[in-house]
């Protein structure tokens, strides 16, 4: 599965669009949640990530204002590379 990262109007959010469907339904995850998916669980527990929103073929990752995308992107991309089936 291939992802394209793109910025959003919110500087604390980044959209990751997949080349195929990711989700069968909408997902919303906040820091205090424990998602069943190890990948989503890993993403939400990256320090600096506060929420995830996903629908169809995209995932939006929101960070804290003080977290830097330069440090977060490699961690996010490594976890996204593990996705082989829709959630």
UniProtKB/TrEMBL annotation:
Source species of the chain: Sporolactobacillus inulinus CASD
Domain Scaffold protein Nfu/NifU N-terminal: 3-86
Pfam families for this protein: Nfu_N (PF08712)
Protein name: Scaffold protein Nfu/NifU N-terminal domain-containing protein
SMART domains: Nfu_N
UniProt cross-references to InterPro entries, sorted A to Z: Nfu/NifU_N, Nfu/NifU_N_sf
């Amino acid at each position: 599965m291939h992802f394209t990262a793109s910025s959003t109007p919110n500087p604390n959010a980044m959209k990751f669009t997949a080349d195929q469907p990711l989700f069968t339904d909408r997902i919303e995850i906040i820091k205090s949640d424990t998602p069943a998916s190890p990948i989503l669980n890993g993403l939400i527990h990256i320090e600096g990530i506060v929420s995830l929103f996903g629908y169809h073929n995209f995932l939006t990752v929101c960070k804290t204002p003080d977290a830097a995308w330069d440090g977060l992107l490699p961690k996010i991309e490594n976890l996204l590379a593990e996705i082989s089936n829709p959630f």
